[in-house]
From TrEMBL:
Similarity-based family: Belongs to the LacAB/RpiB family.
UniProt keyword Plastid, yes or no: no
Name assigned to this protein: Ribose 5-phosphate isomerase B
Domain of life, source organism: Bacteria
Pfam families linked: LacAB_rpiB (PF02502)
Keyword vocabulary terms for this entry: Isomerase
Organism (species): Tigheibacillus jepli
Record InterPro entries: RpiB, RpiB_LacA_LacB, RpiB_LacA_LacB_sf, SPI_LacAB/RpiB
One of the record's GO molecular function terms: ribose-5-phosphate isomerase activity
EC nos: 5.3.1.6
PANTHER family (alphabetical): RIBOSE 5-PHOSPHATE ISOMERASE, RIBOSE 5-PHOSPHATE ISOMERASE-RELATED
Amino acid sequence: MKVILSGDHAGMTLRNEVKDLLEEMHIAYEDTGCSCETSVDYPDYALPAAQRVASGEFDRGILICGTGIGMSIAANKVKGIRCALVHDVYSAKLTRQHNDSNMLAMGERVIGPGLAREIAKTWLETAFDGGRHERRLNKLTAYEENR
Ligand code: RB5
């Protein structure tokens, strides 16, 4: 699995925590987030990362900002992206099993590093259930294709 990681200035500490986790899990990743000496705009980081997941260059993406909200809104504008904003472990598991989310967003101002690690680990390790959930995702894809 190849993961793209990105984030703005408000998510830098949590992004470093996720980087440590990816290294511990021996998952290949590229960090395209800001170096963050100054304040930046989250769409400038979320949109290119989402495009690189949508194109198939990366299997999954993890986005971090202050709340996770801006990054998730931006990522979900990109065709083919199912970005889940997650701040609990149960949702991390279910969004993989039911939504086949290909991007995860978290907020550094919302949760601490320990929980963020658990969420990211669960999200990375959980497979899509398929079945009836596939049918539902197909409806989203059809909507995207036809608008
Ligand atoms: C930056 O201050 C903050 O607005 C951003 O990181 C994010 O939380 C937006 O949704």
